Amino acid sequence: MPQILIVAGEASGDLHGANLARALRELDPAVRLVGVGGAAMKSAGVQLVEGFGHLDVMGIVGFSALKAIIRRFAAMRRLLRSERWDAVVFIDNPGLNLRYAWFAKSAGLRVIYYIAPQIWAWRPGRMKYIQQRVDQVMVILPFEPELYRQVGLPCTFVGHPLLDAVAPYYDQAKLREQFGLQPTGRVIALLPGSRSAEVRLHLPILLDAAERLLRDDPTTQFLMPQASTIADDLIRPLLEKSSAAVTVVPEQASEVMAAADLICVASGTATLQAAVVGTPMVLFYQAHSWLTYRLARLLIRVKWIGLVNLVAGRPVVTELIQHEATGARVYHEVHRLLHDQAAYDEMKRSLQAVKASLGQPGASRRAAQVVLDACRA
């Protein structure tokens, strides 16, 4: 009976850990799964380590954060040495998980990393750390395997989990009816991000663009998915200040994207989600300060920040970053796409190619098979 420890540190990692756990149980009902994660992993049958909680310390500052990190480092070392795990699977969250992987490797355990660190974007020098601490990586972007093969680290492209989360087809008319929209008129989706700080910065930009679009066409309608991480008290005051009426939908980001003619989206995984849905988009992002932006530009090693452009290997989607991320510029790009049918159709074709490059559905099952094969080896 394989004994597998799954370590996830954030909400997204908890979801991926849950999907991986279900796939592991389907392939081997006898497998024993223990994990550090959240409610999603628990509901998937993972025995959570009591008193551990999530590994991140977001929201904790100063000396309290340092104490929390030290306590969790010590707890992780004890956990890794408590049993002879057949495999330890770390999911995403490289800031902490690569350090925990060192503990696992020092304990003589087999270490597998799922959704490997984005070394291609931030710190290529991290490759040596990964080589020292990880036995095998499972990646979800098509250009990543070659990077690991160049240094001789076993790597498997399992496909992107989004292909399992997004339906193969959506009925746009039914979705619009479901969300209480009028059957006629353009529908624009507004996606300011899933973190509170992002919403504070980005939602006013999107509402400015929405007001400008309404002056052009008063029949334009606006939809916004509300992530579970965003409180009503954060978005309500911002929406009340705007003359643009926005229909807010709890979660259901994919459905909101499918109901829309065009999406205004903050850079992140949501850009790939929009590509999988197939709706054209305008991508934007604004950092908290000019200094933060300049530091990021010094560290980033890629031509574009949008995942959809990185996967395509070319600028499929316009990127409005920092000083260009204004309501006026977002409005201009939306207006251009809505009135240039050739450009709109070309983007749709390019997004279909991006989706095709992400592999086939079943990423979690393929990842689970890699883990079980490693345990049996």
SSE topology sketch:
Layout: E1 3-8, H1 11-27, E2 32-36, H2 39-43, E3 47-48, H3 62-82, E4 87-91, H4 94-106, E5 111-114, H5 126-133, E6 136-139, H6 144-149, E7 155-157, H7 162-165, H8 172-178, E8 187-191, H9 196-216, E9 221-226, H10 232-240, E10 246-250, H11 253-259, E11 262-266, H12 269-277, E12 281-285, H13 290-299, H14 307-312, E13 319-321, H15 327-339, H16 341-357, H17 363-376
Helix pairs in contact: 1-17, 4-5, 8-11, 9-10, 9-15, 11-12, 12-16
Summarize the entry for a quick read.
The protein has 17 helices and 13 strands. With 377 residues, the protein is α/β, with parallel strands linked by helices.
Structure characterization notes:
This protein is of the alpha/beta class and 377 residues long. It has 2 domains: 3-159 and 362-376, Glycogen Phosphorylase B (Rossmann fold, 3-Layer(aba) Sandwich); 172-357, 3-Layer(aba) Sandwich (Rossmann fold). Helices cover 50% and strands 15% of the residues. The chain has helices at 11-27, 39-43, 62-82, 94-106, 126-133, 144-149, 162-165, 172-178, 196-216, 232-240, 253-259, 269-277, 290-299, 307-312, 327-339, 341-357, 363-376, and strands at 3-8, 32-36, 47-48, 87-91, 111-114, 136-139, 155-157, 187-191, 221-226, 246-250, 262-266, 281-285, 319-321. Strands 3-2-1-4-5-6-7 form a 7-stranded parallel sheet, sandwiched between helices. Strands 10-9-8-11-12-13 form a 6-stranded parallel sheet, with helices on both faces. The longest helix is centred in the first third of the chain and has 21 residues, at 62-82. Condensation of UDP-2,3-diacylglucosamine and 2,3-diacylglucosamine-1-phosphate to form lipid A disaccharide, a precursor of lipid A, a phosphorylated glycolipid that anchors the lipopolysaccharide to the outer membrane of the cell. This is Lipid-A-disaccharide synthase. Its EC number is 2.4.1.182. InterPro entries: Glyco_trans_19 (IPR003835).
